[in-house]
Amino acid sequence: MAYIKEKQVAIEAALKAAAFCIDVQNELIATDTLEKGDKSPVTIADFGAQALVCQHLRTVFPNDIIVGEENASSLQLPENLPLLEKITAFTQRFVPEANNERVCEWIDLGNGEVNKERFWTLDPIDGTKGFLRREQYAIAIALIENGDPKVGVLACPMLPVDYDDPKRGVGCLFVAVRGEGALMASLNSHRLQLKPIHLVDGRDPKRLRCAESIEHGDHELQKKVIKEAGLHADSLKLDSQAKYGVVARGDAALYLRLPSPTQPDYREKIWDHAAGVLLVEEAGGKASDMLGQRLQFASDQTMKHNQGVVVSTPVYHRAVIDALRYFLA
C-alpha cells in the first residue's frame, strides 16, 4: 500500500475542516461574507477551513507545497478585523493556539505554486453558494505527483448517504489512493468505516442519469448530449465536487460540465477537480475534457489545456464524447 501517511493526514485534515464548516454553518450570519474578484461569496468557513487544512498538512509534511484557493490579503485590511476575529475564534475550537496572525499565516501556506514534482491542492469549500443555501458543498484535498492525483479526499457534510433514501442521513467522506480503489464512509457514524464504492449498475435505470451543476455550464447543450448518450432519467442538480461522489458510488452515471456560452474561454481550476477525478477513476470510471483529452493538473492553477469536464463510466464516457463531436461538428 502506498501513501499511507498522506492518506491518513488528508482524512484527518478533511474531517477537522468539515467539523469547522458545520459549526460555522450552524451559526452563520449572512453578513459575514467578503466578495471575491469573481463576485462569488466567501464565508468565514472558506478561510478557516483552509487555515486548518494547511496547518495540519504542513505540520506533518513541512516541505510540501500547498496550492489553495484562498489567500489572507483581504482579511488583513483594517475594516475586516471583526471578520478575522470570528475566523480565529472558530479556529481556536480545533487549534487552541490559533490567533489572528497565525490564522493568516496558515491560510497563506496555501499560496504555493504548481509544479511537476509534488504538491497538495485544496479547495476549502467547493460550492460556496451551496454552503450558503445549506445544500451541497465539499472540502476537497488532493496530492499531485508528476501531474497525476495520487491521494484524494472529499468531505461532503450535506450529501445524503444514499441520494434516493434520505432517511439514511447526510454527511459523506470519500477517499481514494491511486491503484487502491475508491472508498466512502458516513460522517455521522461513531467510528469511521470506509467501504468500497463502485460505479452505477447498468441494470438500475433510475440511476442512469447525469449529475450537473446548478448554475455553471451550458445546460442546453448538456441536455442534448445527455439524451444522445442514452441517459433518460432526470438529472441530479447539485453544487461542488459532491457530483464526483455520486458518480463514484453509482447514484449517477455521468458528470458533465461544458463551458457556458457566456464564458466560452473559461477554464477550470485544478482544486475543483483533482480529488474528484481520482475518486471516479479509482471507482472504475473515466475522466477527460470535452474533447476526450486527459485532464492536466500540473501546468498551472488553471487547467488551461483543457475545456469542459466529462466524467462517467467507460461506456457512457465514449457515448458522451461521440455525442459532443456530433453536436460541435
TrEMBL record:
Cofactor: Mg(2+)
Xref: Pfam families: Inositol_P
Catalytic function, reaction form: 3'-phosphoadenylyl sulfate + H2O = adenosine 5'-phosphosulfate + phosphate; adenosine 3',5'-bisphosphate + H2O = AMP + phosphate; adenosine 2',5'-bisphosphate + H2O = AMP + phosphate
InterPro entries referenced in this protein's UniProt entry, alphabetically: DPNP (IPR006239), Inositol_monoP_metal-BS (IPR020583), Inositol_monoP_superfamily (IPR051090), Inositol_monophosphatase-like (IPR000760), Inositol_monophosphatase_CS (IPR020550)
Enzyme Commission (EC) number: 3.1.3.7
Residues bound to Mg(2+): E69, D123, I125, D126, D272
Transmembrane segments: none
Domain of life of the native organism: Bacteria
Keyword Metal-binding attributed: yes
Keywords on record: Hydrolase, Magnesium, Metal-binding
Entry annotated with the keyword Phosphoprotein: no
MF terms (GO), sorted A to Z: 3'(2'),5'-bisphosphate nucleotidase activity; metal ion binding
GO biological process: phosphatidylinositol phosphate biosynthetic process; sulfate assimilation
Family under the similarity heading: Belongs to the inositol monophosphatase superfamily.
Name by which UniProt lists this protein: 3'(2'),5'-bisphosphate nucleotidase
